[in-house]
Amino acid sequence: MKYALILIIFLAIFLRMYGLDSPPLFYDESVHAYFANTVLKGTYSYDPRYHGPLLFYSVAPIIAFFGETEFTLRILPALLGVAFICSIYLYRRYLGKKVFLAMLFCAVSPIIVNYSRFYREDVYQLLFVSLAAYFLLRYLEAEKKWNEVKFDKLTVFLLLSAVFLALFSAVKETFYVFAFFLLIYLFFYLTRIRISDAVTHNLY
Asked: How many angstroms separate the first and last alpha carbons of the chain?
């Protein structure tokens, strides 16, 4: 299984790095490159039509040190694309050996590979959602009673989930759609726990 993991990661790296600088920048990338340069000039102003600002602030130091090319603009999304594939491995506690199949499908998925090869915010979202969901699931594994909620080592998982959700919110406004459905899930999840507590204490 270790060799399967290594092969999948190397495949993900190859598909995301090979010829990364070959296609010229397309419209969205050129707009994002402009905003990354405004960050360097100190004139950046947030505009929700163009998303960000994390997308621009994260790439600005790269082009400041190495210059602005197709490769330098796309290298971080490519690396985050590989990181996304690696993040799926965390779900092995839920998927078992099927996690390798999930990693492979995502590693070769044309649309996910495409997301990882362009200077856009899509792969940022994939990675942040993957990590936020994982750490939230880890926290929810312990079904605490209402009178048992306290800060402990499991709370670190909740904090990490919140961090990645915050990063997601700084990338694109679709965060609010995702957060809406997440709140619905948490509402019903917590309601189920609350009802079970009430039944246990003969409140109904």
From this structure: 50
Q: What are φ and ψ of residue 185, in 5° steps?
A: -60, -45
Spatial separation of the C-alpha atoms in residues 20 and 118, rounded to whole Å: 8
Backbone angles phi, psi at 144, to 5 degrees: -75, 145
Q: Is the CB of residue 103 less than 8 Å from the CB of residue 89? A: yes
Would you tell me how many other CB atoms lie within 10 Å of the CB of residue 162? 13
Residues 126-158: tens digit of each pLDDT: 999 999 989 988 888 776 555 555 667 778 888
Counting every residue written for the chain, the total comes to 204
d(CA 105, CA 173): 27
Mean pLDDT of 27-50: 89
What residue type is 151 in one-letter code?
Answer: F
Written as six digits, the tokens of 64 are 């400041």
Dihedral of alpha carbons 118, 122, 125, 129, sign: negative
Does the pLDDT at position 104 exceed 80?
yes
Write the DSSP symbol of residue 44.
Answer: -
Nearest-angstrom CA–CA distance, 17 and 4: 20
Q: pLDDT at residue 108 above 60?
A: yes
Predicted pLDDT at 191: 65
